[in-house]
Amino acid sequence: MNHFIKIIIACSFLFLFNSCTKEVPTPTQLRILVLDDQGYALPNALVTLYQSKSDYLTYKNAVAKTYTDQNGYLYFSNLSTGLYYYYSVEIGCLDNYYSNNHITSLLEPQVLNEYDPIKLNVVGKIKVENDSNNPYDVYLDGYLVYNSLSGNSNITIPEVEGGNHTVEVKQLYGSNDFNYSVNVSCGVYPTVIIP
Fold first, then answer.
1. Residue 97, CA distances (Å) to 5, 67, 92, 100, 119 in order
2. Which of 63, 68, 142, 171 is the most exposed place for a label (fewest CB within 10 A)?
3. In whole angstroms, what is the distance from residue 146 CA to residue 136 CA?
4. Per DSSP, what are the bridge partners of residue 102?
5. E strands, 51-176, where?
């Protein structure tokens, strides 16, 4: 009988110990493969995570920052659910400004969420110098990007996708309009000079 009581006591302690320990829930995680412009996995790219589109567009209020791992994956853990996160990924002259930049569905809680790979593109900038005394409107590929660039000043058009572009400048108080063909490539940032 003494042996039977020892078994009951041992089982009681075992049951009590197991019921008192709390199981720690798995954190909500995000993992996405990042590819370069040729489609190869890209390690060491800087990834910044934002909770809203306005924060992403202004590069403010980052939730977290990390780098892609040696296999090209970005990874975040302990994320809040119920949000459509936006992310900026960049390394050198490559970034995701012209490709996918946000999660299109809500994160599932307490699991590893994986989404389609992010392919980075060549992105650069174009400098426009107005060496005249006249103000000009500046267009990139037919879209107004700067209104009334004053004389003897300059601007930089950021986040221009790599490739061939047309910069058109239209004089505000006259008829001196100019068209320029420019090519943006990795590490080459053209300058347009208004005479």
1. 70, 17, 13, 8, 10
2. 142
3. 9
4. 86
5. 64-67, 73-76, 86-91, 94-95, 112-114, 118-119, 121-130, 136-140, 143-149, 153-161, 163-171
Provide the pLDDT for residue 104.
84
- Torsion sign (Cα): 153, 157, 158, 161: negative
Model confidence pLDDT, tens digit, residues 3-13: 566 556 555 55
Residue 12 domain flag:
no
CB count within 10 Å of CB 10 equals 10
CA-wise closest residue to 159 among 84, 99, 119: 99
Q: Is the pLDDT of residue 18 over 60?
A: no
CATH number at residue 81: 2.60.40.10
- As a whole number of angstroms, the distance between CA 152 and CA 172 comes to 15
Asked whether residue 110 falls in the same domain as residue 142, the answer is: no
For residues 128 and 135, what is the distance between their CA atoms, to the nearest angstrom?
12
The number of distinct structural domains making up the chain is: 2
Identify the helix (H) or strand (E) that includes residue 5.
Answer: helix 2-20
CA–CA distance, 182 with 168 (Å, rounded to integer) = 11
Q: How many CA atoms lie within 13 A of 187 on its CB side?
A: 1
